[in-house]
Design goal:
GO terms for molecular function: acyltransferase activity; peptidoglycan L,D-transpeptidase activity. This protein is mainly beta. Helices cover about 5% and strands about 45% of the residues.
């Protein structure tokens, strides 16, 4: 009879199951102290615990097996589970029950550092209703993203299972008691927009078909005012807000502004929005005059605002400055697929 964890084992991750195997016979009885329950396979050769083990607890396993000749063997094993100096909880975006756009990655944020990355990824499973190629990428020891190779297919049902409770994720750190999670969300209609600084337009494609071509004015082509080229992802909408240049370092007495706007759709963390700009309607479609936002007429901005959802794509082209992870918390599409996995 073989028992795992082995006799005398210490600091056993409580997320690992107890297994008992009979070699050359069948199991007739398995008992684990603390009332830990388990299941037997059909051949009665392997027993696996199903109840969760507790942190910092000593367990005793007693097992009895019988061979074909009726001879009985008994094994007893004791081990102790680890005591967690820190626990790790995985916060996940998108949230369960939400609908997001085709550019939204799965983002997992850990509240303590994860250094055993391979173990963490081995116990986080992404499943999709539509076959989807994708992979994980670490952005830090507290943040990892999963994105598809191409934009999601509209209507895809996505689930993430994190089986991390009691698993060692760093020295002294284990998945918290609530780290086993299932997150389910849906990919909405495909909204992909292309804002072109050269043609001063923003084309909006809905489910792959051109729905609107808007005259637009992007960032003025001078240092500090460019709209950054690259794939942006919608993260937030505000019906009304005040644009304040001081939030990204441009003082009011240095050419900055504090301006109320309507229909503001955020596409980065560096002050880039698609929003209504009635003051630049004459320039929209003709020249770039903004401080980095994509200016639309009030009517066009309102239309875009109504359909926009978190995860929608706004791809900016035609400017000399690239979007990077410093300007957005969704930099996933700025990284070529060939460089994605790390």
């Amino acid at each position: 009879v073989a028992v795992s964890p082995a006799a005398g084992a210490a600091a056993v991750p409580p997320g690992e199951p107890v297994t008992v195997r009979a070699d050359g016979g069948t199991l007739s009885r398995v008992a684990v102290s603390g009332g830990v329950r388990g299941t037997m396979d059909a051949a009665r050769m392997t027993w696996t615990s199903t109840d969760e083990l507790k942190f910092g607890t000593r367990y005793t396993v007693t097992a009895e097996a019988t061979d074909a000749g009726g001879r009985t063997a008994t094994a007893t094993s004791a081990f102790t589970t680890a005591t967690a100096a820190r626990t790790v909880f995985p916060a996940v975006s998108p949230l369960t029950g939400t609908t997001v756009g085709v550019g939204m990655p799965i983002r997992v944020f850990f509240d303590n550092p994860v250094t055993d990355r391979a173990t963490a990824l081995a116990r986080m499973k992404v499943s999709t209703s539509v076959p989807t190629e994708g992979a994980w990428r670490w952005f830090s020891d507290r943040q990892v993203h999963w994105r598809p190779k191409e934009y999601w297919t509209a209507g895809t049902k996505v689930a993430l299972d994190t089986d991390l409770r009691g698993i060692r994720l760093a020295p002294g750190s284990y998945g918290s008691d609530n780290a086993d999670r299932r997150i389910e969300f849906t990919i909405g209609r495909s909204h992909v927009s292309v804002a072109d600084a050269r043609t001063h337009t923003m084309k909006v494609y809905v489910d792959g078909k051109l729905a609107k071509t808007f005259p637009a004015s992007l960032g003025k082509m001078v240092k500090g005012r460019y709209t950054r080229s690259g794939v942006h992802v919608v993260t937030e909408k505000r019906r009304r807000m005040t644009m304040d240049s001081t939030t990204y370092g441009l003082a009011l007495d240095a050419g900055g502004y504090r301006t109320p706007v309507e229909y503001a759709t955020r596409i980065s963390n560096s002050g880039e929005f698609v929003h209504a700009a009635p003051w630049s309607v004459r320039q929209q479609g003709r020249e770039n005059v903004s401080h980095g936002c994509i200016n639309l007429s009030p009517a066009n901005a309102a239309w875009f605002f109504r359909i926009a959802q978190p995860g929608d794509v706004v791809d900016v082209v035609g400017t000399p400055v690239k979007l990077t992870a410093k300007e957005t918390d969704v930099p996933d599409w700025t990284i070529p697929w060939s460089q994605w996995e790390n």
